[in-house]
Structures are given as structure tokens and as C-alpha cells.
């Protein structure tokens, strides 16, 4: 028994005096001896009671708190029997209840302060070790004050303190309370210095104060006994501090904040609900409240990380869910929100755990929108899997079990117009509805939003975006733009984009259960190239193999989209009109810029414009003064016809006639025209029988023949031919040369070939003078040929563009011999030299285009002389067939139009005059050949 526990006669008062009885309440043992402390108590009784309280603070292993029920600091204030000199009296002595201004009747004044640091700490749930140490500090300061014989230093009171723990906010809170306690007790003047991250602080003030060591392990390098040191940090950080020699002799107490237990969190939850005047179905002792607390702990990697702030945040979410449930009820039951306002503060189980996922399909507006969209089957299936997992998690949560987690990151791949952005936005809302993320807010960004203006700025902007989207859904569109590609044979990334990727890797993990969702969107091929050349950590966080792949819509999906858009526009289309529209979409599908759903919208927009023009023309309303609309105006009832989609929708019925019109200026093409007419007939017959003609009609050609034999003209006609057959989305012909295929250094040629093919999708790619690929015979040309052959077999390009290689016959044969795959994949068409009579027919046609007629010769041998001259010209090495015939026609036209011409007189020329022109051409060609031969002989 402690001497102070004895009465005036030495008897033990701890048993007899009712104030010394111990009581147990709320699971805590406390002494009720101070319950009788009032203003009427004698000084002796007051001092005995306080001493009893102080000495009950046993510093052994079994510490009993006698103060849990007391939040008034006055229990520690006593009246001394005599005047005593207190070494800290000059530091706000009134805090100890002492006022020297009262003269001989000086006495201790009870200063009950409800907001005192100790009272604040005692009101908190948990922190048992902290409360023990604070009371110990109070005890030591109290004892020092009552010791008049000595004037102890701050160092001797051992007030320096180390505080460790995972939660920085809790460490700072306890440190702040400790600083205020020391100031409250008069130990500190209130001055405080903070040492953060190695930045020194100014402590020139001579007044005693508190020094806080925050995130610095090598701070104390001077002896400052008059200051109290408080060290804050993680457990590893505190161990580093204690590893220094000066720290071992300085710090004698270390407080390790362990976090709240399940019971303590439940107490905090109940207290917060009371504080907000919220009622709970079943009362504050409802069993599901404990399950709710357990769910909060289970969602954390370390359950001890759940603290007061997390509980407050969770209650805010519960209240938000309550508001949403009431709003839904008002919509479904047609009630006023005011009539349900009394239910707002009464929480039910579904407010804590969310709506049971079985009701998700009926209540989620986002899923209803997604379900109405065509072509989203993979995303819909993923949502169903999330709902199934959510049902399991709901049951597990109500039973206090850990939830099954899912990856927080997703990748959406697909060409433009396939609905990636819409699907990703709805998917984000669905994740929020199912409770996988906190907020329903979806933030859409592009790589350009992450880029900064200088080195280091991109990383800062990236970190800011990630911080701002915590608890939300972040969509990064066109994510492939984080990498420029190797189109020109060089590394397409840069330090800015690499910095962005590295920052994302450093701040985003792939651990399931995180409070964040990031969705990347991009084009499949470019995303694959990006992944091959990026940080491996980025690949692990956003696995490409698990991506949602959005393919170009097939005919069925495009038809559904057209029906949905027509219904939305309150318009209709005849079966024939819709068939023509679908045919146009099929042609456009191979174009690199095909927009899928966007293409349908553009098609309908153009059709509406043609519809208005057609109706106006049919009603004779093409004047500048349109007829005012009336209530019975039929124009409002839109029904699209085939011609509204395509004015030339019946071109397929005129294919044979249209084909021959493409070659009306060419002669001697009967064989070539017959070949393409055969392709047209095959296509029509296979289409009528439901077969795919693409597998039978060739899409790659070798045009070989002498110059001017019609290769280029035929290639340009192919665009219109294959468009009319429904194989191409446009009549465009892309002209290029061999230099457009070949790079300047190793590794550049392949990407250039792919880039060229990508641009030519849905078109005709015409490579003139392609024989140069076989003449050069170097690594670059071989790479170009090999890449071209390889790409032709890939699904991306096969039968989706027409490729024409043109050149002279012998040189093209040499090219074909360089690669066996080249010969087997191309259909050869030989363009012969023009015969003399074909040259004359072609000359006559070209002159007729200029309205020049050739008069019938007076003698039959004149025409024969023309044919002989054409034959001689054809035997010259530089003869260019149709091209030279065109040159002859231009010369004749020039001669005729440079003469004076009477008005109204027809333009005519005789064969004799043509003979003179042909002779002059022949002499020029012959003299040029002789000059070249003479030059060659002189050089030799």
C-alpha cells in the first residue's frame, strides 16, 4: 500500500472509503474516488483524492486507467498546505491553478477546461498507450512541481517522445496534442519548430519549446536540453532514428500507433451516427453495423489502417446511398421527396452495403443504355460477370468476409466508331453502381492532356491527373499516341512521353480492389506496337491479352444501328433503300477511316438531304420561294428510297455498258475488256446465289507491256470497276512510285510499305515502273518486296484493296523471278503493242475529240502509206504506242488551229496531210537514234 493511501491515522482508506472503490463500466476499469470532488471538499480530501488518482497510474505492465469517465481537468488541481516555489511558475502558472497575486491567501484554483488536451484525448476511442503516457507525463510534471527542494530541467523529466505508425494523420494529431499538453502544463512556452525532409529550422529563440522531427533521421546535432523533441515517422523511420547514438540517450518512450480494433471502430461508427442524428433500422446495436465495420477493415491490405477519417468518409457514402434510394423511390412510386424526407435520417441495411446486385439490372440506367446498344456483347458479358461477383461479395460482406476483388484497369481496343468511348463511360458508371469505385464521375483524357511544356512538367501533370481521379473512372482515349511509332525507322517515343508512362507505372498498381479504375482506348495495331516499345510495368498493369476488342461491325450490327438511328430520327426506309444503304456501308468498311456507327450516321444525314431535294423536285418546288409548310405536309413523313442513299444505285444493272465506256478512247483492248467483263459476270452470279465473290475475283495485278499501251489508263479504270462491283469503298486510285516503298536505312522500308498499304485500304494502289524493285537488287528492295508479299496474306489487307504493279514486260518478268510468292499472288495482264490499224483508229478518235474530221482519201494507197509509216514508227526503240499517237494528234491539232479559219467552217484534214506529219515524226526519231549511236561509238 502506498503511504498516500493511508488516512490521518495510518489506516487504509482504499477499502473503507467509498471513493476508493473500483467500478467497471463499458469494459474499462476506473476509480470513482474523484466523483466526490466538489468545491466544498476540504484541501486535505482533495489532495488525498488527487494523489490516489496519480498513484493509480502504475507504470508497470498492468496499467489501469482511472479517468475514462472524467473529461474535466480540474480533478488534478489541489490546494497546497503552504507556499511552494515552482520552477515553471513563470510560464503561465494559472494553468496549474496558482495565482501569486492573491498574497498570503494564495491557493490553487480549479481551472476546469473542457477543451484541454488531456480531455480531448480521453474522449477519443482507443489510443490506450498514448493515454497512459500522457497521464505519466502529467504525473511527472506534477511531482516536479511539488518538489520545492529541486529545480529539475526539462531533460530530467524525460519528455522527449517518438511516435510511429502507418497513418501520418494520426501521428500528427497525437504530436499536436502532446505539444498542447506540454504548453498546457507550463513546460513549453508554446514555441514549436518543425524539421521536415532535411530542411533546417530557426531555433534561436531562447524560450523553451518543442522541436518536431518529421521525415528526417539526422536532425539532432546540437545539445538543446531546454527543448522537447518529438520524432514522427513510420516504424522503419523511427528505427533509423534510434540507430543513432544521440537518440538512444535522448528518447526513452516510443508510442507505436497500432490502429483501431474492430470493437473500437464500431464504437467510433456508433458515435459518429449519433453525432449526425442518424437512426439505424434495428437500433445502434444492429448486428449488420459490426459487419459493416468488418467490411471496411477487409477492404484494406492492412486492417489497422482504418481510422476515424475513413469511418467518416464511409458514413458520408452511406448517406449518399440513402439519398439515391429515396430519389429512386420518388420516381418509381410517384411521390414527392418532401413526403419521404422523414425517412432520410433512418438508415437501412442496403444503405450500408448497397443495393443487392440482383436488382441491378432493373435499377441501373447505365446498364439499360448499354443493353440497348448493338455490338457490345463482350462488354455486356463482362458486366454480367461483375454483377455475379458483386452478388457473392454482398453476401460475404454481410457475413464479415473479405470481398472477391477484380482488376481495376481495362483496355478497350477497336477501330473508330465502334462505340469504345460510349461503352467505356457506361462501364465506368456500372462499376460505380456495383461499388467497385466510389464516384460515378468519368474523366476523359487524351495523351496530349498529360504532356508538359518542359522536362519534368509532364510527370507533374500526370501525377495531378492521377490524384484528381482517385475514386473515379479515368478514360485515356487514343492511348497509342503515347508512342509515335516507327514509321520513319526511328524510336517514336520521347522523354516527355516516357516520363508520363513511368509516372503512371509508379503511381498505379494492378492490385485488385483499388479505389480507382483506368480504361485505355486505342487502335489494335498501334496499341500492340506501343506495348512492344514501352515500360514492361505498364504492360503488367494494363494487360493487352485481357482487352475488350471491338471489331468493325458486321452487316447484322450495322443494320441494327441503322434501325435504331432511323427510329430515333422518326424516319423509315424502304427495304430497297435499306439494302442500298447497307451495300454502301459494305464498300466503305475496308476504308481506313471507316467510322462504323459514325458511318451510319453520315450515310443517313446525306440520305435526308437527297430526300429533301427529291421531294422538292417531284413537287416542283425547286424555286427560290419554298412553299410554307402545312400540318398535312407529307415531307415530314420521311421514307428513304434507294436513290436517296445512292443516286446511281442501279449501276450494277449497267455494269457491262459502263465498263466499255471506261475504255472508249482505247483501241485493241477487246481481250482485256473481256477479262474484266468476266469478273463482273462472276460477281453478279455469285451474289445472287449468296456466295462471296471476293475469294474468286483477283485483287492484285501485274500490268506489263510497252510504254503507252494503256496500263495506267486501265489501272485508273479499275477503281470504278471494282467500286461498281461492290469491292471498294471509293473509286480513288493512289499513284506511287518505288521510292515511296523503299527506306534510306535498315529498318525503315517495312514500316513505309505498311503505311502505304494502310492508306490504300478500300482503294486502288498503282505502283508504276515497279520493275525497278527487281533491277536494284539490294537489301532495301528485297525487304520491300518481302514486306509487300507478306502483308497481302494478312487479314488486314487481303482482298481489301487492289494492288497494281506496272512496267515493261521483260523488266517485270525479272521482278517476278526475285520472289516466288510475288508471281503466285499476282494476276498478269499483258498489254500488246498497238497494231498500225489500231494506231490509225486511235488517231481518228483523238482528232474527233477535237472536232477534227479525216477526209476519205481519193486513192486507196494513201491509207496504206499511213499504216506503213505507223509500222516503221512502232519499230523504233522509243515508240510509246498510244502516248505517241496522242502526241501526233496534238501536232495535227496545233497545225490546224494556228491557221486562219473562216467562221462556221468544219475542221478537216486529209490522209495526205497526216502522211506528211508521220514522215516528219519518223525522220525525227531516226535522226535521234543515229545521234545516239554516234555518241555511243565516240565514247567507246
TrEMBL record:
The keyword ATP-binding applies. Gene3D superfamilies: 1.10.8.60, P-loop containing nucleotide triphosphate hydrolases. Residues 1-44, 615-635 are annotated as: Disordered. Coiled coil: none annotated. Keywords: ATP-binding, Hydrolase, Nucleotide-binding. Pfam families: AAA, AAA_lid_6. Residues 406-548, 697-836 form the AAA+ ATPase domain. CDD domains: AAA (cd00009). It comes from the Eukaryota. GO terms for molecular function: ATP binding; ATP hydrolysis activity. The keyword ATP-binding applies. Belongs to the CbxX/CfxQ family. This is P-loop containing nucleoside triphosphate hydrolase protein. The lineage of its organism: Eukaryota, Fungi, Dikarya, Ascomycota, Pezizomycotina.
